Amino acid sequence: MNLIISTISQGFIWAIMAIGLFITFRILDFPDMTVEGSFPLGAVTAVILIQHGYSPELALLVAFIFGSLAGFATAFMYTKLHIPSLLAGILTMTALYSVNLRILGKANMSLTKSDNIFNRYGLDKLPVNFNGIILGIVIIAIITFLLIVFLNTEKGQAVIATGDNETMAASMGINTTMMKFIGIMVSNGIVALTGGLIAQQNGFADVNMGIGSIVIGLSALSLVRLSTLMFHLVPDLLRLQLVRSSTA
Amino acid sequence: MKSLLEIDNAVKTINNDNQELNILDGINLSINPQDFIVVLGTNGAGKSTLLDAITGANTLSSGKILLNGDDITSTNLAKRSRYISRVYQDPKLGTSPRMTVAENLLLAKRRGLPRRLRLRRLNDHMKEFASFTKDLPTLDNRLNTFTDKLSGGQRQTLSFLMAIIQKPELLLLDEHTAALDPQTSQELMELTNKVIIEKKLTCLMVTHNLTEAVKYGNRLIVLKKGKIVLDLDNEAKSKLKEQDLLEYF
After folding, report:
1. Domains plus CATH for chain B?
2. In angstroms, what CA-CA distances link A161 with A97, A136, A173, A189, B168?
3. In a domain? residue A4
4. What is the chain A residue with the closest CA to B83?
5. pLDDT digits (tens, 9 = 90+) for A163-196
6. N or C: chain B end with fewer CB closer than 10 Å?
7. Which chain A residues in 167-186 lie under 8 Å from chain B, judged by CB atoms?
8. Do A174 and B78 touch (CB under 8 A)?
9. What is the predicted ipTM?
């Protein structure tokens, strides 16, 4: 039972990263490899700040900002230097390896200070691993709400239009370059925030912890897609079965 | 009459197999308000390049473009879109497939204006959009339909509506009926003609269809190898027959 709760707890935190990936992969139609670098960037930033005595909340905010800056680098290479999207992401991801090493000063670092966001706000009084579930749900709810509100603004619609049909968006006077910057930066900010949370949950940061993160995120998106299909398919199949049985 | 758009000695050169090729070769064109100009030409004559140059999708190698007397040669596409709208040949190019018809129309309603961080308030516009589409059997009651569920004809009609929902100073139609079946093409062309006359729009329409070229518009231009080789006013155009145009192809 503990294993299941622990898995769900981790899953809720990783799900936050999937929201970030959703912005680039689904909305902007931009395959962003930066994630493998911005995820550990968030982790090392959060750990080093907490180790230096800063609050875990501030550490997460700085992780978000640093992640956004990583996204800025990719967006700049893609839009201004006309480097293909995959290559731009890989270049930033590779560069971030050195940046992460420089920030952390070594390959990995444990959070020796017990103060982290998972034992604040009374979360430490919850049964083991329930703090991750509660915090995950709260953060997912906040980010999802903000994302829904943003996508319903004029700017948000412009981001959707840019990912959907860039030619049309440009002919409507939308600054598509700016929209790509916004999307890629926000996405990587959320990914880095997740990195900061995972580091606090696991109690350490490692410069290699980003390897495979994009696979986890994309798997989550595929599962969402699959469950959406099932959500529509199952009632249809049931209705078909009912029609068949009534006409038999 | 003061010209709406002036194209002064427009040249667009590209490098083709290490040879310089003039796609537009010294185009001089003056478009007056409420002109409905039909542009004909073979493939590669420079028709789409001319439209690209006017919208700002392409920059000229040399020459000037003036809109209402203001030099817009170096103005970017986003700024020009406030005054110039375009319907593409491919129905998929003009709309956003993951948005509904109403959302697309709302997007077009703010054409060329800054996109702010404020709620779009789609519901406030639904009545207006409903009245806008009520006379169009293909789009009536489909405001909440996602665009990727529409047929090519419906999407192209929507693209056209998006181009005119905010009255443009200049409407560019780039073979906008070419990808449609004959009946849908005819219906859209009739709608186009009706709207252009009713709203007193200035329009530049590129087509390969000689029947359309003779039937619609009040001026006809033929492009060949980047040059204007024929420019007929309304009177001369009214005497024109389809066969007369064949020699230019």
Report:
1. 5-83+168-246 (3.40.50.300)
2. 33, 30, 11, 21, 21
3. no
4. A173
5. 999 989 998 999 999 999 999 999 999 999 999 9
6. N
7. 167-175
8. yes
9. 0.85
